[in-house]
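Table S2 (text version). Query chain:
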Amino acid sequence: MGFYDARLQQLISRDSPQVQTLHSKLLCPDGLECSQTVSLGQREWRVLFLPSNRPYLLWRTLATLLIGLLMTAIVLIYLSRWQAELRRTRELSDLKLRLFSMASHELRTPLSVISVSAQSLGTHRESLTPQQQDSAIARIQLSAKRMGQVVNDILLITRAEAGKLGFDPEIIELGPFCQQLFEQVQLQSGQCLLLEEAAERKAYLDKKLLHSILINLLSNAAKYSPQDSQIRLVITAAAGNLHFQVIDRGIGIPPAALERIFEAFYRGENVGTVLGTGLGLAVAKTCAEVHGGYLTVHSSADHGTCITAVLPNIE
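Corresponding structure-token output:
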């Protein structure tokens, strides 16, 4: 009957020169492998499949390959970002759960102390000696200070995770600043703080963030050091940076814990019964990074610890 050219979408007579050319270029000239006999209407029909004589173009194959690779890359990038966002969401969810768990645990004790001390003052004020009254008031003030520090650390970590931690540097006279800071550190019996090399030194830093760095480092040093020990804060300048070194002779940090010591809520296995949130070093590290600096730690178990906050300084 004729031949249907799929490329031209038209029927061609079997006697046309074009069909004869197709016969000469047929890949299977005997027609056995390129034909199929079909019985229809009590007649047998022979369907012959002929290859197209359209020239092969390499650029079309390359274009198809490149488009396929581009689409694959786009899908992979989208999936990787989606997985990273999902992982980030899970980490934030875990952080919130740990924050609530830690807050409920760490705030319960000072709240109980405040409640009991206030109740004792209210009920037995007349029977308490002045020394006992002063002791109850001191316990209330100490517990309130501890609660305030925990709340401040939680807020700072939360703001840092949300990318809303501000940076407002100003000129600071380090000598008076550190002396005021020392008055806020809770020391054990016989402990003392020593400031070295900061009598007339000034710095251009964020006062609130610097306060958070040093108060956490000094508080940790006092907490994990024995009574009647000395804790040193050494401030030096080198290569345009200020180095704030907090040196103690406390229990130290085990080697296995050094890699995780700056993680939020992580505490070494050798802390024993010493109370803590595991937020101090994480807060200090976050504040140092906001300044464009970093923390380093050198420690050995039972031989003390030296933690250095390296912060850029603008003269």
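Notes on Table S2: The mean pLDDT is 81. The chain has six helices and eleven strands.
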